[in-house]
Amino acid sequence: MNENIIKRNELLATKVIKGLESRNMTGYYAADQKEALEKALELIPEGSTVTMGGAMSAHEIGLVQALKDGNYNFIDRDAMEDKRAAMLASYDADVFLSSVNSMTEDGQLVNIDGNANRVSAIAQGPKKVIFIVGMNKVCDDLDGAMKRARNVAAPINAQRFGLNTPCAKTGSCMDCKVPDTICCQFLITRYSKHPGRIHVILVNDCLGF
Length: 209
Hints:
Helix content is about 40%, strand content about 20%. The chain is α/β, with parallel strands linked by helices. The strands form two sheets. It has a six-stranded parallel sheet with strand order 1-10-7-4-2-3, with helices on both faces. It is globular. The relative contact order is 0.21.
């Protein structure tokens, strides 16, 4: 990665982490995927029950495989026949893994969901929530973060799941109300009532969508 981009990301991450701290959330900066994986595992005690939403970033840094291979009770929704049971288990988990569709420089997290299992677990339930966030998802402000979530993350995910939505065909949000829409619930996490619950690992890389 270009040295100027690295420096810019370091400076921006410092600003984002201060914003998170002002919102009762904890932020970390990882110089690469390896460092992000080490930090995530440091935050997850062995023996913990761990679940997750659809966080591609957690897969990309090797965290999901590390949990499967390690001494953890990892509830793999994709491997379970009863998907609802896996989703419900999230609410009583020790750790819930996620990413964000976007976030702001001052520390607000933006997520859009179709079934609400991910955003509801972020909002309440699991004892600890760990976000793996590539620096590509940091936006100037809330307006920019919402636009990124709706016009970048949502169309890519709709295409990835083979959904019949206008954004899957056009590449941008059409504010649709079709049966396949994944933009059903919008969650903006602007403050955490519970100290030590929300942790955000910012990664000096382009991760997820």
